[in-house]
């Protein structure tokens, strides 16, 4: 079943969703115009993405690389450079952020599989899942006072794309560090 395209944008980038689902496959084009895609993860969908223009980098949290001797739920930080022609996989339930190099317009095209009942969860930005938690849950999750976490979250007023870390978005990077690493 095919549904018409959807389009979301802000000053940093845009995304177009060309189809809702074609047998659990979703295709998107994501240009990141000198900024970054906020930290997020998909609950069910895994993505195959190709860089079609520009340069950048990614940071991903991987539960499979965590030490077996450590407690369950430990994530290992994985990072890498991105350039034209690179293809990478974003497994479901692997938090990720993508950053364009300063002055570079990073454009990526990709498709998701197993997207049925998928939910895209942001870990930073205006749509962050952390905004919905009670103060007590925030304190237990981060082991710092809830007001400090809420101050960080309140500074994040954009969704999906933001200016890159080089452009003074320290609160976005710090929440990823708090949450994942």
Automatic annotation (TrEMBL):
Protein name (record): Cupin type-1 domain-containing protein
Database matches in Gene3D superfamilies: Jelly Rolls
Similarity annotation: Belongs to the 7S seed storage protein family.
Xref: SUPFAM superfamilies: RmlC-like cupins (SSF51182)
Lineage of origin: Eukaryota, Viridiplantae, Streptophyta, Embryophyta, Tracheophyta
Record-annotated Cupin type-1 domain positions: 16-150
